[in-house]
Amino acid sequence: MNEKDAVILQYVAEEQSLTKAAERLYMTQPALTYRIQQMEREFGVPIIMKHAKGTYLTPEGEALAAFAKKMRDEMNAMKDYLLNMSRQVKGTFRLGVASYYGLYKLPPLLRKFKDLYPEVQFNVTCALSAEILDLLTEQEIHVGIVRGNYQWPEAKYLLHDEPICLISREPIDLDKLPELPQILYSEPKSKVVRAAASSLGQTIQTWWHEHYSVPPLIAMQADAYETCKELVKQGLGYSIVPGVFVTPEDGVYSLELKLKNGESIRRNTWMLYREHTRELAIVDKFVDFMKSEH
């Protein structure tokens, strides 16, 4: 079993679909099926089983997948160790970032870091913050950047926080807000994501109940903040979004939300990592770089 076989088992387990796993691997499905058959002959056990709802690993396949993950982790650790022996800043840096941060903040930062350390290669995963935390827990990435407050027992650094803003096409009278149509950001359906995201939602609800005795008038729901903003720009209602999505060029009215005690409602962006990984030159330099940039 080689490193690519280990990735094959991982993706089949995650996707429960040979078609989707093949897409992630940039392989054809017949090529993927052929390689799995070769592994089955090599180990003498069935690795996958097909059902109407998808493709699953057999108990033997799950055992092989667990072994493959351990093998990949040890291989990555050895690569890091060998590159670090000379304390040169080079090699592959594995970074996980929240999708919105990856879109709005990350590209110029990586360009600047690459200019400083041209021998560094990046392996970047953009995903939901809860998924980034899982990758960090499983040690599949060196550093994770997440939006929102998550429980993380090791090193963390606050990169920045942003206000939560009420936006509308024109200035509005807050006393009349319950009578106006709201474009609501609808959180993802995933239970793990919904649980992680609920903290901000609860804070916004607290703000509403402090100011109003009736619920908001929900006119529309959208699953992306950008969509909420575009609907607002068309005059279809107001919305409540993180400040990172609002720029002067948008031409919308924006008001930062504050609780009655004067405290602003804000959303934090954290850099998470394990302190011992700073023994790797590439991680140490990146952590220092991000701290200096923020």
Strand % is 15-25%
Largest sheet composition: 9 strands, mixed
Radius of gyration: 23 Å
Give the name of the CATH architecture of the domain at 161-267: 3-Layer(aba) Sandwich
Find the CATH topology of the domain at 161-267.
D-Maltodextrin-Binding Protein, domain 2
User: In terms of structural class, how would the helical and strand content be classed?
Assistant: alpha/beta
Shape estimate: globular
Uncertain stretches of 5 or more adjacent residues: 191-197
- Count of discrete alpha- or pi-helical segments spanning 4 or more residues: 10
Write down the overall mean pLDDT: 88
Record field, number of beta strands: 11
Overall CATH class of the domain at 161-267: Alpha Beta
Q: How would you explain this protein's 3D organization?
A:
There is one protein chain. The chain starts with a helix and ends with a helix. It contains 10 helices and 11 strands. A hairpin with a 2-residue loop joins strand 1 and strand 2 (54-57). The radius of gyration is 23 Å and the shape is globular. Among the domains are: 1-72, Arc Repressor Mutant, subunit A; 161-267, 3-Layer(aba) Sandwich (D-Maltodextrin-Binding Protein, domain 2), CATH 3.40.190. Helix 1 (3-15) crosses helix 2 (18-25) and helix 1 packs across helix 4. With 294 residues, it is α/β, with parallel strands linked by helices. InterPro entries: LysR_HTH_N, LysR_subst-bd, WH-like_DNA-bd_sf, WH_DNA-bd_sf. Belongs to the LysR transcriptional regulatory family.
